[in-house]
From TrEMBL:
The organism's taxonomic lineage, starting at the top: Eukaryota, Viridiplantae, Streptophyta, Embryophyta, Tracheophyta
Coiled coil: 68-107
Keywords in alphabetical order: Coiled coil, Metal-binding, Nucleus, Zinc, Zinc-finger
Domain RING-type: 214-256
One Pfam family it belongs to: zf-NOSIP
SMART domains: RING
Protein name: RING-type domain-containing protein
Primary localization: nucleus
Length: 304
């Protein structure tokens, strides 16, 4: 049985739907799987199971070594930017002083030329002396306007005369920021968190992987659950237990340390893998055809 003609013709001035689909033309959508979602027990920087976990006030978890190296790198970068900004300010100040001195020297030179006849012309690094080195009183207008215009004229069609925009560095910030949430982060605002491991005999007999449970209800912690950490002692609970007990009794269920409602920090996670979580778990990639190539060129799609 012969195949359909609409899937084999290639003499049209446009692409058919089947040809576009085979070339990958248009927006391609793909549902993110479990491998694309960050688990709750991994570091936001190294994406590995954390060691000595630290948490910020927004609920982002990091390895202690990773976050300390990140903050130290940010401080060094701020110092480098501050040194460059200070050098730029010093250079601008020196250029302004030199320009003011040259302007005063030109005014004195023009005054001497008008009142005393021919005198040597003031010379600086931006002006050129004529072959005799003298300008009379009648040539003051030519020196002030025409030579200045010729000296400062820019030619966009000549590479050597193309004007260059000066690169100026803005005033740098001395603050350090969270690499995940982009909010200001200080070292003293970080606090260590402690997860409760599942040490039951049933778990030991089944698997050697480390799993964590809620110390109150003994439920295994997963990405499908909302987790809460106490900034006072660092113990992690499920949100149900935190709202039901600690928000009312205002005391930790493990160490009996006092806490307040503002000490309850909701931990961030990559997502649950379900649409009901409220996160955008769909990856999109837009492909357009190159002119005359017949191949699909990949271009990142706009975030929705």
């Amino acid at each position: 049985m012969p195949q359909r003609h609409s899937k084999n013709n290639n003499d049209l001035a446009f692409f058919t739907y089947d040809e576009k689909r085979k070339l990958g033309y248009g927006t391609q959508k793909e549902r993110l799987g479990k491998d694309s979602i960050k688990p709750f027990d991994v570091c936001c920087l190294c994406l590995k199971p954390f060691i000595d976990p630290m948490c910020c006030q927004k609920g982002h978890t990091f390895c202690k070594q990773c976050i300390l190296e990140c903050l130290l790198a940010q401080k060094k970068d701020n110092q480098r930017k501050l040194a460059a900004y200070t050098a730029q300010q010093k250079q601008e100040k020196e250029e302004a002083e030199e320009k003011l001195m040259q302007q005063k020297a030109r005014e004195l030179d023009a005054f001497d030329q008008q009142n005393h006849g021919a005198v040597p012309q003031y010379n600086d690094r931006n002006q050129n002396r004529d072959k005799n080195g003298f300008h009379g009183a009648n040539s003051v207008k030519v020196t002030s306007y025409e030579e200045e215009a010729l000296r400062t004229m820019k030619a966009f069609w000549l590479p050597s005369a193309t004007p260059e925009a000066p690169v100026k560095a803005g005033a740098p910030s001395s603050s350090t920021f969270c690499p995940e949430g982009n909010e200001k982060l200080k070292l003293k605002s970080l606090f260590p968190i402690h997860f409760t491991e599942d040490n039951s005999e049933r778990k030991k007999s089944k698997s050697y992987d480390v799993t964590y449970i809620c110390p109150s209800c003994k439920v295994t912690l997963t990405n499908t659950m909302s987790l809460v950490a106490l900034s006072t002692c660092g113990h992690v609970f499920c949100k149900k237990c935190a709202d039901k007990f600690m928000a009312v009794d205002k005391v930790c269920l493990v160490c009996n340390k006092g806490c307040k409602v503002r000490d309850l920090v909701n931990l961030e996670k990559g997502g649950t893998g379900f649409a009901g979580h409220g996160d955008s778990l769909e990856a999109r990639d837009f492909k357009h055809l190159g002119s005359g190539s017949g191949l699909g060129l990949v271009r990142p799609a706009m975030k929705t």
